[in-house]
Amino acid sequence: MAKTNRVATGYVARPQFYSLHQRSQRWAVTVAHRRCGKTVACINDLIDAAIRCDRPEPRFAYVAPFFSQAKDVAWNYLKAYTANIPGVQKNESELHIDLPGGRRVRLYGGDNYERLRGIYLDGVVLDEYGDMDPRAWQEVIRPALADRTGWAIFIGTPKGLNHFAEMWERAQNSPEWFALRLPASETGLLPARELADARREMSEEQYLAEFECSFEASVVGSYWGREMTKTDKDQRVTGVPYQPEIAVDTWWDLGVADATAIWFTQNVGREVHVIDYYENSGEGLPHYARVLQDRGYVYGKHNAPHDIAVRELGTGKSRLETAATLGIRFMTVPNIGLADGIDVVRPFIAKCWFDRNRTERGRLALASYRKTWDEKRKVFSTAPYHDWSSHGASAFRYLAVGHRLSAPRRDQLNDRSERARMTGGNASDTAWMAS
Question: What is the pTM of this model?
Answer without folding.
Answer: 0.65
